[in-house]
Amino acid sequence: MVEVVSISPEQTERFGELLGAALTGGETVAYFGGLGMGKTRFTAGLAKGMGISADVSSPTFSLVHEYRGEKTLYHFDMYRISTFEDLCSTGFYDYLDWGGVLAVEWSENIENALPEEKLIRIEISRGENDDSRILRMSGDSIYENSWR
Length: 148
Ligand SMILES: Nc1ncnc2c1ncn2[C@@H]1O[C@H](COP(=O)(O)OP(=O)(O)OP(=O)(O)O)[C@@H](O)[C@H]1O
Ligand SMILES: [Mg+2]
What we know:
The protein has helices spanning 9-22, 39-49, 84-90, 92-96, 141-144; strands spanning 2-6, 28-32, 64-67, 73-77, 101-105, 119-126, 133-138. It is α/β, with parallel strands linked by helices.
């Protein structure tokens, strides 16, 4: 586990970018942490680090946004997902097999469907003030080292 503190949205994005640059394809980046913790902002950085220039926005209504690059990024919002049927309807299981990168907001809701292989857990919680966030990453050391 590696833990960092972010004191601004820009810094959270930067941590995402550092991780994004370490991804090789096939990873699932699973976010845990409540409303407004910075998961979408982090994903914008992830895309940047993967060499994708796109305006990353919340996939709240469409459930998944797809950003094409050398490796494709699939950005999910599982906020409204509660059943296995719901999850299947997002295409999650199909995307898992395609070798892209999955970034999954509200992974709490699909915890037992997360793959074991190439799983990177990102937990975000509030820090000492409104703009600070504590980010914890658990995964293989090739990923954790991107923050060290
Ligand atoms: N250190 C920080 N890192 C990230 N965001 C921050 C930070 N400090 C303040 N913020 C603010 O918190 C909000 C984070 O929004 P964002 O949409 O990225 O969160 P989210 O976790 O995806 O929320 P949701 O659960 O609604 O999808 C933004 O308004 C951002 O400006
Ligand atoms: Mg979000």
